[in-house]
Amino acid sequence: MGYQSAIIDLGTNTFQLLIAGFDAEKMQISIKENQTYAVSLGLGAMETGFLQEDALNRAWVALDYFSEIIKKYELKGRVTAIGTSIIRNALNGEEFLSQIKSRYGFEAVKISGKREADLIFSGVVESMPKPWIETSLIMDIGGGSTEFILFKEEEVLFKGSYEIGGLKMLSLFHSNNNFSIENKADMEQYVLAQIKDLIEATKQFKPLHLIGAAGAFETLYDLECIENCKDKLEGNYAEELSVEIFYQHKRLLEQMTLEEREKFPGMKPFRAGILPSAMIEIDLILQAMGKSSLWFSNFSLKEGYFFETFRNSIPT
To answer: Which Pfam families does this entry report, sorted A to Z (predicted)?
Structure first.
């Protein structure tokens, strides 16, 4: 294996590790490790403006775990930790990144919402069946922010990053970080007010497909696969989801308690808190798009960063 690197996505809800190389024979990415660790780094920070001590303690546990995995590979210093929404906004976000650098020797960087959208796009387009030529909208629901990229073939027509992530919505509209159906209408009104320019862009460009990147969409795929899949992803990196099954699950889950959602078949417990809010956002986008298909892509920011840095490593 030639080029290999590790990317850590320091998300508001989860930390994710990708270790991958490029298989020159097959001309495709070769994934060695793909790990997710529930951290909830944003808990408390959205209200106070500071990453909280208990959240930082969880972060160090996750990073210690990732560090041990990384040591098994010859990466020649190619390890990058990427801070997104909560690290952009927290007053001690830069300090946290500096501590990562000194503690592990990793490169640790903070990126803008627009840069995040660019990397998500780079990852998702690599996962889709080829040729993929119809106008489509990528949606990546994080814990703090949600990114959208509207594109046709390789041209980006619109992109935006909005502070409407799953944990952010819990913080704004639901007491004790627990979803409540009584606040659904207020949340919908708030989200629609934030994404007015996106709604206008969908009217202008009329995307035919909504492609959900990783995270909450992976959970939707897991829920659907309990009854509707034979082999998970069947060797592919993207799959079409059933819009009908999505709405069936949405109606069920938003009426449940947190404890009931955690036990729902296919549910990852750390997603149970934010999934109803995420499904409300997905519903709003599907309504804005009209008749469209729904897809899940297993690639997102970290895969996009891998492809970008790999291309930059090739001598010109």
So the answer is: Ppx-GppA (PF02541)
